[in-house]
């Protein structure tokens, strides 16, 4: 029995694994590739040069791979790439990349994307993230693994959010957020580290204590950013159990382009 509903429209040039399910009234364009085990619900439109991996589930009324909402886009064959094992809920909008960046919007593996989420052109989202309802990313935003974005938060274009960071509800984010840091408010302000998230992901007491110490150096020691980076480098040797985590924070500071929430 076919797993494509008779009312669905799948372009003959689309490449779908034989196990892919497509629900009623969904539309799949000619440049779409979908891997094994993926389920596309009803009334979903997947278009553009879009590649989707295995075991994803798309709920109803999503718009996947539409043209970027960017006046500079002139029809270039830019892409959207989605990994494996993602849950993508109702009314999401994921746009293609633009030629002014890498030309691709990416979503990694095992992400939970709630209803009404927007991933704009050229966003790069890692794996194991959680986006609550109405979290909105402008263009060129980078989000690290295990980050959590709460409902109705908005992220300015070109911002970077580090791994394991937590963005609170209704936050207006216009600067970068280092790994492990919890921010909230409008404008956003730092509120500590994402302790509960780290505990749930199996971080040891020594790791969490080291991350907390690094946070205090960065936010509570009255150091300039350059002084804080130097102090973090010294701290890697003093706290070997958390050295990799402290290094991640220090390296993030070196790559921040919009300044950090501080």
UniProtKB/TrEMBL annotation:
Its main location: cytoplasm. Pathway: Glycolipid biosynthesis; lipid IV(A) biosynthesis; lipid IV(A) from (3R)-3-hydroxytetradecanoyl-[acyl-carrier-protein] and UDP-N-acetyl-alpha-D-glucosamine: step 1/6. It catalyses: a (3R)-hydroxyacyl-[ACP] + UDP-N-acetyl-alpha-D-glucosamine = a UDP-3-O-[(3R)-3-hydroxyacyl]-N-acetyl-alpha-D-glucosamine + holo-[ACP]. It is found in: Cytoplasm. Residues 176-261 form the UDP N-acetylglucosamine O-acyltransferase C-terminal domain. Homotrimer. Involved in the biosynthesis of lipid A, a phosphorylated glycolipid that anchors the lipopolysaccharide to the outer membrane of the cell. Belongs to the transferase hexapeptide repeat family. LpxA subfamily. This is Acyl-[acyl-carrier-protein]--UDP-N-acetylglucosamine O-acyltransferase. It comes from Massilia consociata. The lineage of its organism: Bacteria, Pseudomonadati, Pseudomonadota, Betaproteobacteria, Burkholderiales. The gene is lpxA.
């Amino acid at each position: 029995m076919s797993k494509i509903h008779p009312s669905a429209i799948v372009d003959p040039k689309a490449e779908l694994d034989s196990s892919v399910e497509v629900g009623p009234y969904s539309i799949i364009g000619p440049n779409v590739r979908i891997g094994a085990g993926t389920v596309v619900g009803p009334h979903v439109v997947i278009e553009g040069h879009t590649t989707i991996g295995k075991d994803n589930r798309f709920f109803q009324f999503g718009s996947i791979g539409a043209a970027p909402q960017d006046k500079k886009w002139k029809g270039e064959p830019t892409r959207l790439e989605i990994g494996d094992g993602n849950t993508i809920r109702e009314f999401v909008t994921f746009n293609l990349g633009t030629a002014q960046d890498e030309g691709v919007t990416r979503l990694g593996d095992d992400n939970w994307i709630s209803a009404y989420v927007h991933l704009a052109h050229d966003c790069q989202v890692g794996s194991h993230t959680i986006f609550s309802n109405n979290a909105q990313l402008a263009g060129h935003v980078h989000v690290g693994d295990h980050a959590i974005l709460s409902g109705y938060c908005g992220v300015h274009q070109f911002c970077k959010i580090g791994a394991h960071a937590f963005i609170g509800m209704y936050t207006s984010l216009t600067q970068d957020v280092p790994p492990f840091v919890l921010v909230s408010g409008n404008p956003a302000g730092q509120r500590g580290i994402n302790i509960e998230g780290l505990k749930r992901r199996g971080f040891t007491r020594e790791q969490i204590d080291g991350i907390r110490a690094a946070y205090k150096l960065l936010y509570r020691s009255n150091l300039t950013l350059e002084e804080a980076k130097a102090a973090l480098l010294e701290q890697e040797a003093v706290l070997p159990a958390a050295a990799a985590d402290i290094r991640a924070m220090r390296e993030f500071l070196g790559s921040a382009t919009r300044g950090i929430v501080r």
